[in-house]
Fold this protein.
Amino acid sequence: DAGVIQSPRHEVTEMGQEVTLRCKPISGHNSLFWYRQTMMRGLELLIYFNNNVPIDDSGMPEDRFSAKMPNASFSTLKIQPSEPRDSAVYFCASSFSGFDGQPQHFGDGTRLSIL
Amino acid sequence: KNEVEQSPQNLTAQEGEFITINCSYSVGISALHWLQQHPGGGIVSLFMLSSGKKKHGRLIATINIQEKHSSLHITASHPRDSAVYICAVLYGGSQGNLIFGKGTKLSVKP
Protein backbone atom coordinates (compact mmCIF):
# COMPACT_ATOMS: atom_id res chain seq x y z
CA ASP A 1 0.00 0.00 0.00
CA ALA A 2 1.44 3.37 -1.01
CA GLY A 3 1.77 5.86 1.78
CA VAL A 4 1.46 9.62 1.52
CA ILE A 5 3.52 10.76 -1.45
CA GLN A 6 5.14 14.18 -1.51
CA SER A 7 7.06 15.83 -4.29
CA PRO A 8 9.62 17.10 -4.77
CA ARG A 9 11.78 15.63 -1.99
CA HIS A 10 14.15 18.57 -2.19
CA GLU A 11 13.76 22.01 -3.71
CA VAL A 12 16.35 24.75 -3.90
CA THR A 13 15.35 28.02 -5.47
CA GLU A 14 16.08 31.71 -5.36
CA MET A 15 14.01 34.15 -3.37
CA GLY A 16 11.14 35.66 -5.25
CA GLN A 17 10.42 32.49 -7.20
CA GLU A 18 7.13 30.62 -6.95
CA VAL A 19 7.35 27.26 -5.19
CA THR A 20 4.74 24.51 -5.46
CA LEU A 21 4.77 21.50 -3.16
CA ARG A 22 2.61 18.51 -3.99
CA CYS A 23 0.95 15.82 -1.94
CA LYS A 24 -0.97 12.67 -2.75
CA PRO A 25 -2.79 11.35 0.34
CA ILE A 26 -3.53 7.71 1.08
CA SER A 27 -6.50 6.52 -0.94
CA GLY A 28 -9.66 6.57 1.18
CA HIS A 29 -8.38 9.14 3.66
CA ASN A 30 -10.62 12.20 3.80
CA SER A 31 -8.43 14.53 5.86
CA LEU A 32 -5.19 16.11 4.70
CA PHE A 33 -2.76 18.22 6.70
CA TRP A 34 0.16 20.46 5.77
CA TYR A 35 2.89 21.02 8.38
CA ARG A 36 6.11 23.00 8.44
CA GLN A 37 9.17 22.15 10.55
CA THR A 38 12.09 24.46 11.31
CA MET A 39 14.82 24.36 13.92
CA MET A 40 13.58 27.59 15.47
CA ARG A 41 9.84 26.91 15.62
CA GLY A 42 9.63 23.11 15.52
CA LEU A 43 6.54 21.58 13.92
CA GLU A 44 3.60 23.80 13.03
CA LEU A 45 0.25 22.98 11.48
CA LEU A 46 -0.32 25.23 8.47
CA ILE A 47 -3.70 24.09 7.17
CA TYR A 48 -5.94 21.10 7.10
CA PHE A 49 -8.66 19.89 4.76
CA ASN A 50 -11.62 17.64 5.40
CA ASN A 51 -13.34 16.20 2.33
CA ASN A 52 -11.30 18.60 0.16
CA VAL A 53 -12.58 21.66 2.06
CA PRO A 54 -10.14 23.82 4.08
CA ILE A 55 -11.22 23.62 7.72
CA ASP A 56 -8.52 25.54 9.55
CA ASP A 57 -5.95 27.73 7.81
CA SER A 58 -5.06 29.83 10.83
CA GLY A 59 -1.53 28.46 10.74
CA MET A 60 -0.79 29.76 7.25
CA PRO A 61 1.91 32.36 7.85
CA GLU A 62 0.79 35.04 5.42
CA ASP A 63 -0.83 35.74 2.07
CA ARG A 64 2.20 34.45 0.21
CA PHE A 65 1.10 30.95 1.19
CA SER A 66 -1.88 29.24 -0.39
CA ALA A 67 -3.10 25.66 -0.38
CA LYS A 68 -5.59 23.87 -2.58
CA MET A 69 -7.16 20.44 -2.71
CA PRO A 70 -8.94 20.16 -6.06
CA ASN A 71 -9.83 16.51 -5.49
CA ALA A 72 -9.49 13.75 -2.91
CA SER A 73 -6.18 12.51 -4.28
CA PHE A 74 -4.15 15.68 -4.67
CA SER A 75 -3.18 18.82 -2.79
CA THR A 76 -0.72 21.64 -3.39
CA LEU A 77 0.95 24.17 -1.14
CA LYS A 78 2.17 27.21 -3.01
CA ILE A 79 4.49 30.00 -1.88
CA GLN A 80 4.63 33.09 -4.03
CA PRO A 81 6.93 34.96 -3.80
CA SER A 82 9.27 32.80 -1.75
CA GLU A 83 11.61 34.24 0.90
CA PRO A 84 14.67 32.77 2.68
CA ARG A 85 12.68 32.49 5.94
CA ASP A 86 10.38 30.00 4.20
CA SER A 87 13.23 27.48 4.20
CA ALA A 88 11.98 24.46 6.13
CA VAL A 89 10.82 20.89 5.78
CA TYR A 90 7.18 20.74 4.72
CA PHE A 91 5.23 17.62 5.64
CA CYS A 92 1.91 16.45 4.33
CA ALA A 93 -0.17 13.93 6.30
CA SER A 94 -3.53 12.25 5.80
CA SER A 95 -6.00 10.42 7.99
CA PHE A 96 -9.49 8.97 7.94
CA SER A 97 -11.15 11.67 9.98
CA GLY A 98 -9.40 14.84 11.03
CA PHE A 99 -8.35 14.85 14.66
CA ASP A 100 -10.99 12.37 15.82
CA GLY A 101 -8.63 9.76 17.22
CA GLN A 102 -7.43 8.33 13.91
CA PRO A 103 -3.66 8.21 13.36
CA GLN A 104 -2.14 10.49 10.75
CA HIS A 105 0.14 9.08 8.11
CA PHE A 106 3.00 11.37 7.14
CA GLY A 107 4.82 11.76 3.87
CA ASP A 108 8.61 11.90 3.77
CA GLY A 109 8.55 15.69 3.55
CA THR A 110 9.88 18.27 1.11
CA ARG A 111 13.09 19.99 2.17
CA LEU A 112 12.83 23.53 0.84
CA SER A 113 15.77 25.92 0.67
CA ILE A 114 15.25 29.47 -0.48
CA LEU A 115 18.51 31.25 -1.32
CA LYS B 1 -2.55 30.61 25.09
CA ASN B 2 -1.74 26.94 25.50
CA GLU B 3 1.83 26.07 26.35
CA VAL B 4 3.16 22.57 25.78
CA GLU B 5 6.19 21.49 27.75
CA GLN B 6 8.06 18.25 27.25
CA SER B 7 10.61 16.72 29.57
CA PRO B 8 13.30 15.73 29.45
CA GLN B 9 14.65 17.57 26.42
CA ASN B 10 17.32 14.90 25.89
CA LEU B 11 17.46 11.36 27.23
CA THR B 12 20.13 8.71 26.93
CA ALA B 13 19.33 5.18 28.03
CA GLN B 14 20.85 1.72 27.92
CA GLU B 15 19.16 -0.96 25.88
CA GLY B 16 16.48 -2.69 27.92
CA GLU B 17 15.71 0.25 30.19
CA PHE B 18 12.19 1.52 30.83
CA ILE B 19 11.75 4.99 29.34
CA THR B 20 9.29 7.72 30.33
CA ILE B 21 8.77 10.95 28.41
CA ASN B 22 6.47 13.60 29.82
CA CYS B 23 4.21 16.23 28.28
CA SER B 24 2.38 18.95 30.19
CA TYR B 25 0.01 21.58 28.88
CA SER B 26 -1.68 24.59 30.38
CA VAL B 27 -5.31 24.69 29.19
CA GLY B 28 -8.05 22.18 28.54
CA ILE B 29 -7.62 20.10 25.42
CA SER B 30 -9.75 17.81 23.29
CA ALA B 31 -6.96 15.40 22.31
CA LEU B 32 -3.24 14.76 22.59
CA HIS B 33 -1.02 13.31 19.91
CA TRP B 34 2.34 11.53 20.27
CA LEU B 35 4.62 11.49 17.23
CA GLN B 36 7.96 9.81 16.60
CA GLN B 37 10.50 11.43 14.27
CA HIS B 38 13.31 9.16 13.11
CA PRO B 39 16.88 10.39 12.63
CA GLY B 40 16.26 10.47 8.87
CA GLY B 41 13.39 12.92 9.40
CA GLY B 42 10.40 10.66 8.79
CA ILE B 43 7.45 11.13 11.15
CA VAL B 44 5.19 8.39 12.49
CA SER B 45 2.00 8.96 14.43
CA LEU B 46 2.12 6.80 17.56
CA PHE B 47 -1.02 7.62 19.51
CA MET B 48 -3.89 10.05 19.65
CA LEU B 49 -5.75 9.97 22.94
CA SER B 50 -8.23 12.05 24.88
CA SER B 51 -8.48 9.95 28.05
CA GLY B 52 -7.04 6.94 29.81
CA LYS B 53 -4.35 4.80 28.30
CA LYS B 54 -3.39 3.27 24.95
CA LYS B 55 -0.88 0.52 24.26
CA HIS B 56 0.83 -0.58 21.08
CA GLY B 57 3.57 -3.16 21.37
CA ARG B 58 6.21 -1.83 23.75
CA LEU B 59 4.74 1.67 23.75
CA ILE B 60 2.20 2.91 26.26
CA ALA B 61 0.64 6.38 26.35
CA THR B 62 -1.35 7.72 29.27
CA ILE B 63 -3.16 10.97 29.83
CA ASN B 64 -4.49 12.61 32.98
CA ILE B 65 -6.95 15.29 31.96
CA GLN B 66 -7.28 16.76 35.47
CA GLU B 67 -3.53 17.15 35.86
CA LYS B 68 -3.06 18.25 32.21
CA HIS B 69 -0.31 15.72 31.75
CA SER B 70 0.55 12.84 29.46
CA SER B 71 3.34 10.29 29.52
CA LEU B 72 4.81 8.08 26.85
CA HIS B 73 6.46 4.92 28.13
CA ILE B 74 8.75 2.55 26.27
CA THR B 75 9.34 -0.85 27.82
CA ALA B 76 12.47 -2.91 27.06
CA SER B 77 13.98 -0.05 25.03
CA HIS B 78 16.02 -0.84 21.95
CA PRO B 79 18.48 1.22 19.88
CA ARG B 80 15.89 1.39 17.09
CA ASP B 81 13.70 3.42 19.49
CA SER B 82 16.24 6.26 19.17
CA ALA B 83 14.27 9.17 17.77
CA VAL B 84 12.70 12.49 18.70
CA TYR B 85 9.33 12.07 20.41
CA ILE B 86 6.92 14.97 19.95
CA CYS B 87 3.76 15.72 21.87
CA ALA B 88 1.02 17.83 20.29
CA VAL B 89 -2.21 19.03 21.87
CA LEU B 90 -5.44 19.90 20.15
CA TYR B 91 -7.65 22.44 21.82
CA GLY B 92 -10.69 24.35 20.71
CA GLY B 93 -12.42 21.29 19.25
CA SER B 94 -11.73 19.55 15.95
CA GLN B 95 -11.56 22.90 14.20
CA GLY B 96 -9.26 24.35 16.79
CA ASN B 97 -5.56 24.72 17.33
CA LEU B 98 -2.78 22.13 17.32
CA ILE B 99 0.25 23.10 19.38
CA PHE B 100 3.46 21.08 19.35
CA GLY B 101 6.02 20.54 22.08
CA LYS B 102 9.68 20.96 21.21
CA GLY B 103 10.34 17.23 21.38
CA THR B 104 12.41 14.84 23.46
CA LYS B 105 15.49 13.41 21.80
CA LEU B 106 15.98 9.79 22.91
CA SER B 107 19.17 7.83 22.35
CA VAL B 108 19.22 4.18 23.34
CA LYS B 109 22.71 2.70 23.55
CA PRO B 110 23.35 -1.00 22.92
Q: What stands out?
A: The two ends of chain A are 36 Å apart (CA to CA). The CA atoms of residues 72 and 106 of chain A lie 16 Å apart. The interface with chain B takes residues 42-45, 55-56, 58-59, 89, 91, 93, 98-106, 108-109 of chain A (CB under 8 Å).
